[in-house]
Amino acid sequence: MIVWMPVWDAASCNSTDCECPSGFVPRPCRLNIVARTLGAGMFKAYRVRLPGLIAFLATALMPVVLHSAVGSGGTSGKILSILGTWTGTWTNANNITTGTESFVVQTQVGSTITGFFCWDITQDPATCSSNINDYETWSGTIDATGTLVITGQLGDYPAKLSLDGTSISGTYQNRRIASHTGTWGVQRAPLR
């Protein structure tokens, strides 16, 4: 859209409600005083390009928007380290049973992660592997949005890292026992 604003000489006009010459829309004389002060050529072909303005603003604001809207994983395009021991609970949707857990991320190389679940938080994760009923190894990935895809010995554990990077929550589905399905969530202290 192009808007042309013609300038006319209002040197003889002493009122703020002067009218433009024939064929022009009435304009206050103040516009012409400004035009004479700043230079009339500046206002002779004033055009506004709405798509150009929108594109300019979008480009100018894009870094602000991308920086402040870090996405669902709080990672702003970067994969956060989730190494360490996370603790929390699980709830079986079908049997309405709950329990405690440790989610231990032992290695993280880029987006590839490995570790284990200790399905009883009263056990020390360091010795949990000695109790086969409470110990399950897993491997998986984490992407820049904080999405985790975890495949354990017994089931699948898709999850999501919180925006602040201090908690993980997801679902689980045992591949052998269909009724073992539900939700799980763990957290750790904020990174310093």
Task: Tag the structure with descriptive keywords.
192 residues, alpha+beta, Lipocalin, 3 helices, eight-stranded antiparallel barrel
Q: How would you describe this protein?
A:
With 192 residues, the chain is an alpha+beta fold. It has two domains: 1-69, no CATH class; 84-187, Quinohemoprotein amine dehydrogenase alpha subunit, domain 2 (Lipocalin, Beta Barrel). Helix content is 17%, strand content 32%. It contains three helices and nine strands; from the N terminus they run αααβββββββββ. An eight-stranded antiparallel β-barrel has the order 1-2-3-4-5-7-8-9. A hairpin with a 6-residue loop joins strand 8 and strand 9. It is globular, with a radius of gyration of 32 Å. Mean pLDDT is 73; it is low at 29-38, 42-48 and 62-75.
Spell out the blueprint of helices and strands.
Elements: H1 29-38, H2 41-44, H3 50-68, E1 84-92, E2 98-109, E3 112-118, E4 135-142, E5 147-152, E6 155-156, E7 159-161, E8 167-174, E9 181-187
Antiparallel strand pairs: 1-2, 1-9, 2-3, 3-4, 4-5, 5-7, 6-8, 7-8, 8-9
Task: Describe the structure concisely for a colleague.
The chain folds into 2 domains: 69 residues, no CATH class; 104 residues, Lipocalin, CATH 2.40.128. It contains 3 helices and 9 strands; from the N terminus they run αααβββββββββ.
